Amino acid sequence: MPTQAKEIFEAQSKSLRELLSDNGLGLYLPPYQRPYGWGKDKVEKLLDDTLHGLKNLGEAPDSFTFLGTVITIHDVNHVTVKPIVKPEVPSKVLTVIDGQQRLSSLLILLVGLHNLIRQCAWKVFKGKTPDPTDSARTHLYSETINILQMLGAAFYERKNFGTTPIYPRLIRAFEDQWAKDEKLKQYESPIANLTYKYSVLADGESPASKPTDFRPKARQDAGDGEGDLIKRFNEIRAALTKLSQRKSIEELEDLPPLATLATGIEFQRALFNHELDPELCTWLGQLQDEPEAELMRLVMFAAYGLNRIALTVVQGKDEDYAFTIFESLNTTGEPLTAFETFLPRVVMAEKIEDYQESGAYAYMKAVQGYLDHFDVGDKLQNATRDLLVTFALAETGKKLSKRLPDQRVYMRDTFERHKDSAGDRSAYLRHLSDTAAFMGNTWEPAANSPRTLAGLEATAMTDTVKLCLAFLNSLNHTIAIAPLVRFYSEAVHADEGEARIKRIAEFEKAIKAITAFTVFWRATRRGTGNIDSQYRAVMAGDSLTGIGPLARQWAVPDASKPDPIVDAEALKKELAARLSDPKLGGIPNLASFLAAASALPLYKISRPLTRFLLLAAYHDTIEDPENPGLIIQGKAGVASCFTVDGWADETHLTIEHIAPQQATSGWDEEFYSQKETVHKLGNLVLAPGAANTSLSSRPWTEKKVLYTALGASTADDAKSVLNSSGLTFAQTTEDLAAMSRYLPHLRALGQRKDEWNPKFMDQRADVLLRLAYTRLKGWLDLELSDSSSDPVVQVEDVEIENDELDDKDAGGAVGTA
User: SS3 of 71, please?
Assistant: First the structure.
């Protein structure tokens, strides 16, 4: 029979008393729950909501204060409880998936009420039962004893035997343990420690003696959250004291007058489930500031809290269902990340008592250190999601979805494979730690922090590596992180000496291969061309060249398949094969690259890609003496710009359109017969961005003068060019000369005497693309073939996939308007 919804979860609305005072109930916080963290504002809102509901109850007897939904698992077999004394666990354990902050705050509210009512009751009764003939005081005493019993039952349960029969209702995994034996019980978490200490105190004192006023203090080296918990407890105590004394609190509503209680029969029934004694009501109507009045106000507030504060308690079948329910119902709370729910599995696998001394602890601490850079909320959720998506691809070649339930299941199932082998567990967690280290230090370090390859020598971060990283990051090409992590991880853990040197060299070869492949692929199609699927295939072992997966292991272990491989030469061959394959990349040679790339409006497709191609083309070039306006390869060092400094130098190297983007006089009309023509590579140049004002939409005859000046080798040469031109620019000659820098590609443009037209633009594009191809071909070991006998594959336009769109492509340098 198909599973019914009621078998997966059930939901019931319960008053606080019905929830917490259930006989045999134990509430359990799993280890992934965050520490207590409510601020003063949230406690004030809890008190104000309660006071508002109490006030409304005087007018409408169906008034409740609803505090939302608590998501739990009814852990029938106590599988979530760690550590555990199995025979002594409460009979009904509810593992709290969501709602622990509210429940903890409500519990300290109840403890605070119990403590203050005991103090006030002593002032009124001095530990003695009133004279039976004094009906009013006798009934006040009875209501006080009843409310104390109900309050106590809500935050602790007393067992029938044992040296420690007091069980706090709420405890936390790893830190606490229910037990009736003094040697086995453990209540170290902030909430369990506070409620247990007070419960033992209150339960053990004789009613005939003056009660001890409970004033908790934070313990040294206490767990996270204890300071906040005790601050909130003290704030609640102070607020309740003032309310009982009829002192107004600016942030809160006042308690209803006792006269409202004394005269409202329905009010009494709603609070106490019965009518109050008539003589007590008459007396209450006369009380003002006496201790009896303070006591009755606290009793009234406590009765409302127990009987009229309500929550919807949802019980899920298991953890996966409970989290799914939480995510569908949650509107205000912050879901736990998949890493937070994964952490306790690691702790349990290592054994609680051994965890802090284990290698697993160091790996998990490193991952947590990376995630701690992100604020709780969307930033943390997104960072964790991106980390685990990358890790899954690097670990098993898995395309992991961004959905929280899927991430939790993946981490659980893949870790379960290794739980019985300490070595396998360590390798898995080390790989996760390496992924976090690469993402946090290398891919996108914190603001104002340099990129580093943590764990490797500083020399490993060569200029070429820095350039490739800056480019790939600006392209938002996150799919490249997983393959890079594999080479990085191998280098970090290689033995020092020759092995380490070789692995560092392998990392550089790999990032150059990935960069070249990405440039050639993206420059020959309008969208991403589904490039992500190419990398996923390489990671998963779906190879064209017969190599094993680049991922650390097969998704499904199979001894008949080739072993995973982290080898730069193998990666280069595989990527080159994918680029050349007519069904995949369709770029087998230089001719096909030129045909596809020259036809595309690269400026509109991706500005980071365009800038990278231009830098590669311009590097160490000089003016072509036989073809004015063009450049040719020069000697090494003559004009260095294909460097990380060149990439960062947007002051001098900003993408600018030669023929303006909008049609204007002085330019060939053919540029504008098709809207994409001006955005092709041949019409683009890297020039000082500050000169845009002067370049603007000037005609070609004036623009080329400015190009000559901006590319001059000295400021004096620039001034000479500008002064001899007889032209007036938006900026002064001095300002423009100050922008000058020896840039052969700009000087070359100034040497063209003929008009700038689409035919020459196409000729220039061919030159630039050849230079860029020549610069990058060795990174993939491609042949510099330009034979007309080689097939030229027409690359079809590919629609951009929403989940692969480069978010940053729309940004970058700004061209001339």
Answer: strand
Beta bridge partners of 621: 633
pLDDT of residue 347: 83
Q: Summarize the chain as % helix, strand, coil (round to 5).
A: 55, 10, 40
**Alpha helices, DSSP H, located in 634-743:** 644-648, 692-695, 700-710, 715-725, 733-739
Count of CB atoms situated within 10 Å of the CB of 128: 9
Cβ–Cβ under 8 Å, residues 48 and 40: no
Q: What angle separates helix 422-437 from helix 404-416, to the nearest 10 degrees?
A: 140
Q: CA-to-CA distance for 273 and 15, rounded, in angstroms? A: 13
In the numeric block, the tokens 């799919």 are attached to 479
Enter the DSSP assignment of 683: G
Per DSSP, the residues of 430-443 read: HHHHHHHHIIIIII
**φ/ψ of residue 243, rounded to 5:** -60, -40
Question: CA 380, CA 559: separation in Å to the nearest integer?
Answer: 39
Full-model pTM: 0.74
| Cβ proximity of 54 and 308 under 8 Å | yes
Q: Residue count of the chain, please give it.
A: 817
- Six-digit token pair at 467? 């350039």
SS3 655: strand
Cα diameter, the chain: 122
Predicted local distance difference test score (pLDDT) of residue 6: 54
Which phi and psi (to 5°) does residue 314 adopt? -105, 125
The pLDDT of residue 791 is 37
| Binned average pLDDT, 10 residues per bin, the chain of 817 residues | 56 93 93 88 94 89 88 81 89 89 96 98 95 94 97 95 94 93 94 97 94 94 88 97 93 91 93 94 91 96 97 77 55 72 84 82 94 88 96 97 90 92 96 98 92 96 97 97 98 95 97 98 93 97 96 91 96 97 95 95 96 96 94 93 92 88 88 92 91 80 88 89 85 84 90 93 96 96 60 36 37 33
Residue 14, SS3 per DSSP: strand
Q: Pick the closest to residue 587 from 773, 795, 780 (CA basis).
A: 795
pLDDT at 336: 78
Give the number of other Cβ atoms within 10 Å of residue 562's Cβ: 13
| Placement of tokens 């330009």 in the chain | 786
CB 229 within 8 A of CB 217: no
